[in-house]
């Protein structure tokens, strides 16, 4: 089964990729600036709603209901979209989804498609598949355009070019955008203007657009796309043919449920009361917008994720990226170190599950890309307990390595030691000797302890174990 | 085969749910409406936060306010939906109504568009278009660089839930919160990308005026 680009081929395991990212001081400065700005704003936007916690709980419950009855809701959505003139396609994996989109684009007689930012299509590497099939895709979201022009990888769910600052973007535009003004400044306003001029002609002449979906309403067949720039509206209304690729989990049962998510999403993602544009359409409307609408429902590892009773909560995700912005690990390494289109805390639990292969060293390293501080869970608008899933997946990763891995051996040895008070005390005395050597922390332990101290300090053991102290003072 | 994929994906879902999860029921104890002293004032304030302008217009003063807004923006060629009220079509402006439907080159060559709206939301400073009366098809308010929108105080609701309850989901809907913008450079909002870069709102006592 092809799983497309959930993780990027050739990316090293997280610790190695992180080490490289950490030595890039420009990257760290860019990330720190962007994430600290958005953290403050999000807190303000959330504090404005007195019922925020109740909205989060409702969001969680609605999404859990979707997952528990996903088959029924998908059939309902299919019937509603079909009744309003849309065509529904099903794709088991990336290859199947890409083949469907390529065939539809060719049938529409186009040699190029315009695209709205969509993580699902990044995940299946649709752009690469379309280019190979002779129908190149033009990214129209500003950040996606920056990534595409720079032949770069995305580093954030919402702002894929977050690792680039304004001066770097100006230099890229001057180099790669033939129609960019020669005296282009690094003012964000001027950069946005250059992108507007660059894409204008493409929008007005495009025949086929490809989009993702933020939500699909099962009972009405309505599709929701949330955006800022208007590039989404251009793609959703100007071309004759619209193809929307959507993960099977991106449903809400009924129209009313949007009242929860249209409050949770903008405040969590861009920290706005509302994003500039939200488009909602149902099938085809004669005389207004595309004449053909295709909806591609994508599995690509989602049903495998659904089968895991602990891990399935990752499918509640509405891709707001709040967890990235608060994560101390993400803030320092950036998104590319995760080697996946889904970076950050949510990526660390979503990517390995979608890939479904814990023998893959890179994917198996992702659940360890966390200090388990829990900030991600606190901000998650649908209350995904990311630390819980991280620990659960670490268990799966260790299991996949088999019973002779260092972790498994260490844990079984620890189990033996801790099972008997005498053995435990003997071990503690040994540790106490090491502690006599010096200071409050140990920066480097000999192997196999070096595996632990490569990424963290170990606290020096107390000179006297608690059990001995208790006996001495109370015994 | 397409039907094979459908059968297989649905089959995988049923197999994945073999543990028959029974989630907590959805509790809607969040606020579906909130009382505010001045819903229309709050709307005006929040629209202005997006760097759109809001002008209060008294009954009977709308044509003069439209003329003043268009003069201030140097807008001489304007688009409008087919049912644009006659008194909104102020003189000394070239009006292009979308009937028969205008080609995209014409939409692109106009300075702006004048429409009404379906409803507006105070808390978020949002205008909702549903392609209904005085609005026309979606593309009209997208291609021109300037959108002048007439909002009736009687169209303003306080919260997002109140707004959704009033909307018909099968109509094509566009929620507009300020001019087009981006947060893609250093996560900082900048107004003006592909959609209209300027949004002016005229607030009238009732939508019918």
Topology:
The complex is a heterodimer of chains A (475) and B (209).
Chain A: H1 14-22, H2 25-47, H3 52-68, H4 70-83, E1 87-91, H5 94-107, E2 113-115, H6 119-123, H7 126-132, E3 137-139, H8 142-149, H9 166-176, H10 188-205, E4 208-211, E5 215-217, E6 222-227, H11 231-237, E7 241-247, E8 251-252, H12 258-269, E9 277-282, E10 292-298, H13 302-306, H14 322-326, H15 328-333, H16 344-355, H17 361-365, H18 375-379, H19 386-401, H20 406-419, H21 421-436, E11 441-442, H22 450-453, E12 458-459, H23 466-474
Parallel strand pairs in A: 1-10, 2-3, 2-4, 4-7, 5-8, 7-10
Antiparallel strand pairs in A: 5-6, 6-9, 11-12
Helix pairs in contact in A: 3-12, 16-19, 20-21
Chain B: H1 2-16, H2 39-49, E1 53-56, H3 62-72, E2 77-80, E3 94-97, H4 104-109, E4 112-115, E5 119-121, E6 126-129, E7 146-152, E8 156-157, H5 160-166, E9 173-176, E10 181-182, E11 190-191, E12 198-204
Parallel strand pairs in B: 1-12, 2-3, 2-4, 4-7, 5-8, 7-12
Antiparallel strand pairs in B: 5-6, 6-9, 10-11
